[in-house]
Amino acid sequence: MNNTTQTATQTPRFSPVILFAGTLFASALLMFMLQPMFGKILLPLLGGTPAVWNTCMVFYQTLLFGGYWYAHWVTTRTGHQRQIQIHTALLIFSLFALPVALPANANPPVDSNPTFWLLWTLFLAIGLPFFVVSTTAPLLQKWFSHLGHRSSNDPYYLYAASNAGSLLALLSYPFLIEPNIGLAHQRLFWSIGYGVLCVLILICAMALWRSQTDNDEPAEISDIEPIEAPPMRQQLHWLALALVPSSLLLGLTQYISTDIAAVPLLWILPLTLYLLSFILVFSKWADRIHPAMVIAQPAVLLVFIAYSFINPAVLPFWLDLILHCLAFFLAVMVCHGELAKNRPHAEHLTRYYLIMSFAGMLGGLFNTFVAPFVFNAVYEYPIMIVAALLLRPGFFNGRWFLQPIFPLLLLVLGFGIYLSTESLWDYLDIIGGALILLAGLTYSARQNPLGLGLLTGVILIFTIGLHGLASSTLYQERTFFGVLSVRDTVMADENQKPEKVRELYHGTTKHGAERLTPANITTPLTYYSRPGPIGQLFSEFDAESQNWRIGAVGLGAGALACYHKDGQDWRFYEIDPLVVKIAQDPQWFQYLERCNKSAAMIVGDARLSLTQEADTSFDLLIMDAFSSDAVPTHLLTREAMQLYFSKLKEDGLLAFHITNRHLALKKVLADHVESMHLSGLLQEFRPENAAPLVVATDWVVIAKHPERLERLRQSRLGHWQKLPITFGLQTWTDDFTHIIGIWK
Questions:
Q1: What is the pLDDT of residues 422-450, one digit of tens each?
Q2: What is the pTM of this model?
Q3: Domain 12-215 classified CATH 1.20.1250?
Q4: pLDDT at position 424, please?
Q5: Pairwise CA distance, residues 415 & 437, whole Å
Q6: Is the alpha carbon torsion for 70, 76, 78, 84 positive or negative?
């Protein structure tokens, strides 16, 4: 296959492969650094909510699609020299957007949804530079295909260089850039890097210009018939092969962050594997790797379904995580391998990439705007697991129309058993064993994608229903902020008698519990128990708290409301309206109904909401904001601390809940206490007796003056101690945070 424009006769002084691959590498590096960097810039304005990140991701994917469309349009409608002129003008114009920064007076609306404000702000701040960066991959590969180099007829291997840059940026940002460079310098260095990229793109353009002998004509000179465009069926196949992995990536990220372990930076794992798959399928080893992935996928699927879905309790979370990531990697390798194997002639390269970017955008839109409103849990993840199996090669091989019969019979049989059996609870073990046996049957269908996908889908339907039955879920709903569920469980009371307990979960993290017996229904439990640090705080200051004004960030089930006294003014700040709805509904929890029905509920990001409060107006602020198991970092910075103490009276108290399985948050607060000349006490509470639902919890109480905390320090109710001295920890600010630095 000869390229139609191989007219260059002079041997270049250096290989153009190095120039073009290096430029693509730099472009991807800048793109994947800009996304987390600008997300951090926006954090203090809008808070670390999933809605913010999801909206940003949709913006990036949409602009990426726009960049690919531009590359397709300019390379199919104009000659090479005109392409260079148009793109040079765009590069020069984009330099006026530097350095990247928020527009002046960028303040989000407080009385309406900020989604459109956020999209407009992103467009003004980084829209043009990001658009230019997004055009680089398809445009430069198309230019390279016309250089006349010996590999110009198949430039797709350059895509590996682009994804290598993305992968390096992804791994270096949290581990190298974020710990050592503040946001102000990050913006400056990124802007300098963008200028260097523009120069590299112009050098690539000059290489193309020199290789051409034609004038500025719409079509290139060629003695060979033009390559026929790929049929619509093939283009739709590309669309599906790119859409499913994109949706699967987002679904897995949300699933493992809420249902496996709420570990910071866990989202890096799926995205790393996703980018690695592109590097491998467009490499020179792809022809050997792809068949191996196709063979390995159903073998791993059997173990994956049996343990990670049907019976996940038997696995430690790290092994469950490995299984999910391995199954995901094999699925995207098969899909992307098919995508790479069916790539078109370089003549239609930009159309190919345009469809890929459009599919990625559709996957993001589905997971961000459709799934949260259609599903009450992260069901898009198992749906895309099945879709990936249906995209395996050989869908129409054999008698494909007979393949759905067995899965459909199983589905009918399963629903028949469900409808005809009064109590399935007594048969949970038998049902679980039967599902594991069915998982074993999936391997026998490995040669039939339709049968394999449908059988797996039926097993997942039964598995999800089984877990819902076993968890005694009474209510479940999903918002932008996650999946909330109300469940009943049974525990033994003080007399070892069975007692029903109502629990509130965010993902897999318990955010509140209430005993349902009349004598205990208003007793604060879990992290807010009376024997615990927050109970000790209210007990020690009981004599003077009659007229206190108290603000509590984070509502949960409302247990803190039962510390309310007549004469006190309580205000709860909660970002998720669904949490307020659940806590105020006596059908689920009765803390608010019985203890503090008149408490004010302020919905929105706590930091933004507190700015609207009068200065020096609170006697006590309780910080208890968690997203699953993580405290939003923008509530832990020095600027946040300054805001809290501006709202507290001179003798006011700040109580911080810092219980966390993965992060030593006490280090951050200890550094603030030292640098801001405050006084703080820490209690890492561990219950000494087996009181029901009194759990281990860590709290920090901070005041402006040490004498204000003296009575708490001398309290015999608990073991309060000074915060540890921190060495080498850089102060957390809106400009700088470093998660790795406080990892336990």
A1: 666 666 667 777 778 787 878 788 888 98
A2: 0.80
A3: yes
A4: 65
A5: 18
A6: positive
